[in-house]
């Protein structure tokens, strides 16, 4: 009977059992929740067994499902390892890098030409996404991530802690008095990143008492969007100084106050354990470390 069971249904069963959620499994498999439910229904009908119990906040393996899940989980892990071995055997030097869009556009991509000059035989693919990738499942060699450096089970190398500066469009500031103190920013619309933390922390770091205005304003997903919104005159943004330099030089932004502040989050290079043993990964790690030191 097992030979007639569809492989995709078995893979779906493994993902749902591992995550305890139809939605989470759908995201991992890059399909819809409906497609996941159909695969589970197909498998249960073929086996004549109920594999999951539906609960309020997800699903739970039944006794039958729990009995089969560990072996199938290991089987698919072995398949992935076998595919990894085949990729390595091919011997091509390819490097897939995942990072957030703002870092890719404002820092990494403008420098990649120097990496290609040094290592012309390494094929580089940059995937710019705000989503947290699974390095093994998504076939990503290096992730450049913005966070606190807490990535369990992975090798982590600190790169840089950006310095944030307040910026705005020249049009927004036209005809207004120059800012004398950080609290002057509170008289303008503030643009925030997703957690709304930077403005309150920046103001507190400069001795400004807590003010509800510090948490109001438009929220944007990443620094690149914050820069675009600020350049369009929508408000003041706190962005990494490195990202804003080109816009300031071009006259699309002005730094409204010379009060730089080191962000609490930093950029980290993250890889699977032992990935640095691959020559192309080690080459990129050495190169980006040199780039960071040169930019400091």
From TrEMBL:
Alphabetically, the GO molecular function entries are: DNA-binding transcription factor activity; sequence-specific DNA binding
Does the record carry Repressor as a key word?
no
Recorded hits in Pfam families, A to Z, give: HTH_1, LysR_substrate
- Determine if DNA-binding is one of this entry's keywords: yes
**Single biological process term from Gene Ontology:** DNA-templated transcription
Record-stated family? Belongs to the LysR transcriptional regulatory family.
- The protein's name is LysR family glycine cleavage system transcriptional activator
Name the source organism. Answer: Kerstersia gyiorum
